[in-house]
């Protein structure tokens, strides 16, 4: 396992304003100082609780105004005589109630403002007891962390809770939530409580880890799937057998393959149970409690399982899945659609994984103006593709790579060629490369490149048509101390698509800041060889790319000359000088093949074109003939590539002509179908003329061009006054001077 440094934590030490000796101030002096002291105290609060986050607080004028009013009224209440205190208390309660409701609403979407406006303990204690109950309080509390993720199309989010022996607080972080921790980690948090919510600064300043959750990612995973529906929606959208197949069949096999045979699901599916909860509310906690109660009442031993999956018909919750991040037992809620993609994703959370993101820096791989996408990784089920394999960073976190007897990750620290096996296939060799990018001097947090090679096998078979991924290596970045730091990099940033993220063979990616260059040298069905160099860029020669256009000529007469465009790209990396490529053409015996420019000089990454003219003998028989061109790098004769194109020869076209019926009556529609082929293959772009001669000699004509199928369909509307008798249809097709004809008759009665 490559070197890791644990994240550091320091306790939150709030600045407390000293207790003011209000009673010692004379009434006149106190009244003159009320406004100044209130503003000074508010400024002091802002300084005491200012979030350490780089995100700026979003000031809320009404919260600030109510806080000033509360402080001013509180000071007046302390200085007033008993008769006046009763009236001031009523005003205090009114202001405190409105302020309390506002801060409760701000806790979720603007916790930094709650921290900024929070009253220190001494000021809170100076208020009347009835008012204190409506004022937030600083709190330090220990408990068990619970991390959940709500998965939806828009607005997905992580939700954090702290469970103590008596309460369950929802945690709202102003910045940097604890992505290094999982459900059931024991922590001490320090923040500001408003009702059952705690506003916290950040995970580094507000959370102290007391004990981390034990990993639970190996061996059989006892899983209980509970199917429930609602008192107002007692539907059963799928059968118990279907649920058994999706969770304990497909998802178990997915985990088994991803873990190289080290992890799988066992257990059972129970239900359907109708619970008292309504489908019109979103209360996943109550749903889980009632589901477990129903299963227990039916005789299920809940303690026999370490993973619970609750599946139910679509209800008021807007997410399609919810999962605890880690936890023993873990919990997953499946809302509506029970499918491998959803279950593998939510149970990925249950194993302790966060999302697989992408990093988009425009037309460059890395940059200063980049955006991230929460579900952006297109080849990991924790992103948003089909149920693809977890990437190497995620498998590393789960221990399925580089831990115990798991396959290894090679930590690259010196120049060289490194081989990695396909990520999907169990084997003795390394599954990925880890290359250090940077180490933060203050925290020791390390960020790494993870280089992996994917093949279209097993649950990654959806990659079978992705030539980019299959002919290169995929790069992610990740920080072992931050579970939410998996980012797929786009190695083809000039394209808008994220279906082509891989770095192709011969192409180089250089991180000048880290001083590293990564170049895949070759790929095969069994693995990829990758060059990694540190410091100055080392020249890595690669096979050029060569293409002929079009890949097949139009149909031509024997003896014709066909012209193709030859395109060559130099795939050497940027450390190489320009190379001259020698082109050599080949054609069938008796044919001629001439290149306009047989030598092309190209810089690394550059492309150029020339033309190839192929001439067939006049006596050549009809058929498809192959001609080819090879490009060889004169600086490295082993760097070579070839391509071919087809010349199609035909003396005449075959034309078929059919009508949907042999006989019609006036007013009906005649459907006429024409097919054009040559040597048994359909001919596209053939010009076809239809000539219809009616029974009275009247002639109708029309023209059209065949598509890729070589067919055209016409429709003739017969009029009520059209003549009866025999109608004749003639089709004349031509392409490049090659012709063909077909005729047919039908009758009108």
Describe the structure.
The protein is α+β, with helices and mostly antiparallel strands and about 750 residues long. About 20% of the residues lie in helices and about 40% in strands. Strands 12, 13, 14, 16, 17, 18, 19 and 20 form an eight-stranded mixed sheet that branches. Strands 1-2-3-5-4 form a five-stranded mixed β-barrel. A hairpin with a 5-residue loop joins strand 10 (about 320-325) and strand 11 (about 330-335).
The counted number of beta strands is 41
Beta-strand content estimate: 35-45%
Structurally, how many domains make up the residues?
Answer: 6
Q: What value does the average pLDDT take?
A: 88
DSSP helix count? 12
Mind sketching the topology for me?
Elements: H1 27-49, H2 61-79, H3 82-109, H4 111-117, H5 121-125, H6 129-132, E1 137-151, E2 157-163, E3 168-173, E4 186-194, E5 197-200, H7 203-206, E6 207-211, E7 219-230, H8 240-258, E8 263-275, H9 284-297, E9 307-312, E10 321-324, E11 330-335, H10 340-351, E12 356-360, E13 371-373, H11 392-398, E14 409-412, E15 416-420, E16 432-439, E17 446-452, H12 467-470, E18 472-479, E19 482-489, E20 503-504, E21 509-511, E22 516-524, E23 527-534, E24 545-549, E25 552-556, E26 561-569, E27 579-586, E28 592-595, E29 599-602, E30 607-615, E31 623-633, E32 640-649, E33 654-659, E34 663-664, E35 669-678, E36 681-682, E37 687-693, E38 699-705, E39 711-717, E40 725-735, E41 738-748
Parallel strand pairs: 3-5, 7-8, 7-9, 9-11, 12-19, 14-16, 25-32, 34-41
Antiparallel strand pairs: 1-2, 1-4, 1-10, 2-3, 4-5, 4-6, 10-11, 12-13, 15-23, 16-17, 17-18, 18-19, 18-20, 21-22, 22-23, 24-26, 26-30, 27-29, 27-31, 28-30, 31-32, 33-35, 35-36, 35-39, 37-38, 37-40, 40-41
Helix pairs in contact: 1-2, 1-4, 2-3, 3-4
